[in-house]
Each structure stands twice: as C-alpha cells, then as structure tokens.
Write the structure tokens for this entry.
Amino acid sequence: MGEMHLSYKPLVAFSGEVIDPDTDDKYTETGMNGLPPKVGIPDAFKTPTYRILIVAEKFQTGFDEPLLHAMYVDKKLGGVNAVQTLSRLNRTTRGKDGSMVIDFVNEWESIQQSFQDYYQTTLLEGETDQNRLYDLQHEIQEFDIFVQEDLDDLAAIFFDSEQPQEKLQPILDRARDNWRQRESQEREDFRSLLQSFGRLYGFLAQILTFEDVELEKFYIFVRLLNRKLDRRKGTLPTEVLDAVDLDSFRIQKTYEGEIDLEPGDRELPVIGAESGVGYGPEELDALSNIIKQINEKYGVNLSDEDKVDMQKLKKKIQAHEGLRNVFQANNPQSVRRMKFDEVINDILLEFVHTKLDLYKKLNQPLVNRMLKNEWYSEYQQGR
C-alpha cells in the first residue's frame, strides 16, 4: 500500500501573535497561514487549498460553515461548551449527507448528558437578576479585605497599556495578605463570593451593556485577586502525585455509533448568586493553567511531555538554595527578581542539550516573560 499524501493545507487559528524563536519574527493568523491581505480564515476555508482547520478555543461559536464534516476532539468538553463546539457540524449543504466526530478524550455518556438538557424545549427555572451583582459587591466589600483606593490604583495600571503589569502585584499582594489573616471559614466564604461575582458578571456581560465604570473596575480587581489567593489544599498527598509517572499508553476505541437522546423538556438553573458557590476542587492546577494560557495566547503548543519537564524545572527552582537565601535576606524586590530570572535562565540552559524543542518554546520573549512573572509571583507567596 503506497503512502497517502494530503493535497490540502491546514489553517491554524489562534489569538494574539506567535514569535519564531530562531528569527524573533512575529506572525499573526494571516501571516502564519500565508493568506493574502484581507482574507480571513472563514473565507480561506471555502477555497480548494484549505480543508483542514486546527483550533484551540476560537470558532467555538458563531462559525457557521456548512462545509464542516468531521471533527477530531482532543480536549475535555462538557455542558454548553460541548454543545456549542460539536454543533459546528450541524449545518447542511448540497452533497453533505452526514457528519462525524472522533473524540480522543470524552466519554460518550458525558456528551449525551450535555446535549440532553438542550434536546427539546429548554427553560430557565427563574430569572437572572442583574441587581444581584450589587448585592454581591456589597457583601465582598463588607469583609474589608481591600479599599476603594486599591481598586482605583489597579485600574489605572491595568487599563494603561504603557504600564508594566508587574505593578499590579503589590496591590493584589496587600489584599491577599489581609485575606490570609482571617479565619479559615471566613477566607473560604470570601473566595466563594469572589467566584460568584465573577461568574455572574461574566454571564450578564454577554447579554447586557453595563455603563457602570466602577462595577467594571470591581470585576477586574475581583478576577485578578481570586487568582492570587492561595489554592485550596487537595485531598491527594503530594508524595503520591510525585510517585506517578506515565510509562506507556495505548489508544482504545471505547464507543462507536450514534448517541440517542430522550424526548422531553428540561429546566436549567438560573445563573445567579448561588452559582458555583462551594468548596469543590480547583478547575486547573497552577502549572496547567499557565500552560493553557501560554498555548492559547501565543500558540506555542506545550504538550503533556513538556508539562512533565516544566514540573521538574519548577522543582529545581523551589529547591535552589542560592535563590532561597536571597529571598530570606532583607533584599529589595529588584535584587530578588534579578536573582529569580537568573536562576530560571540557568536551569533553562540545561534543556539545550536534552530538550531543545522545549527550550525554544520557553525562550520565546513573550512566553519567557509570562512564565517568569507567574512563577515569581507564586514563589513569593511561598516565602
């Protein structure tokens, strides 16, 4: 049997810019795909040259392309996220008599449950009250973790593209340190209110136009502060996680066929104050979250194998005695940061001979800066 050659070029969709580690050239989606000026990905996909589209988060909604026939899924989907993503295939056109999904991650039962809620008539159990945002805002303010001056100072930096984002950290650090002084239950109540406000604001912002500038400033502060708070302790001991190594894996077909749905109407809970309140597990661990941000923002495509190596890199940073001594001494922030960046650069150099591809990925200027900023902030919290 001879080799199969594809005559199609793949289109790659991503957000932001990608930087070539060898030349430092910057590429946008158009440049990366070699498209002519003013020709976007949706238009290029209709041409005979392009028939494969590679995406991470983009085109999940609003991409109404009848030519889409097959989808290969390599990420976790659930709820309305699954419905929106897989429904890109349900457009009809002449010559298209079906569609196909090949899923490497999700169980068919979870996909069935995601679609079941939207199969026929879908109703909300009640109305979403936008005034509840102000109630949550008041409840958060009653904790006295931060003051109005903190909101103003952070907004002045956040919305000024000329200001370095590092200046945000001292403002958030003050609020986080105040939060750390509270009792355990009070800390968790505050965290839950932050998350409830963020979810409700994010939902309402999609359907309403807010003219309250102070509310927008409050939302930005709450969203950043929630990320800054110490993570909840997991139930699985760290030593167990450290002892687990992936030796090998194999692909096995677990389901093939159509997924049937049961007729009937469904009621969905209202997005409101109680949405998401509770002390469940974190959505993503810190390293996974950083990798997700890097992949989505810069299109670097850090893999699971890269994550294992980055965990080793991080452990070396944590165990670095010289770095620990600099932080324990009464040194200014500038000296601490200089030493921290120096240690990361030295450890990264070790990858040149063993993991050159990963070294190139992490040494891209914007990626390198983001990684150092995130890990520096996390390292400071542990001191």
Summary: The chain has a mean pLDDT of 76. Residues 184-204 form the longest helix (21 residues).
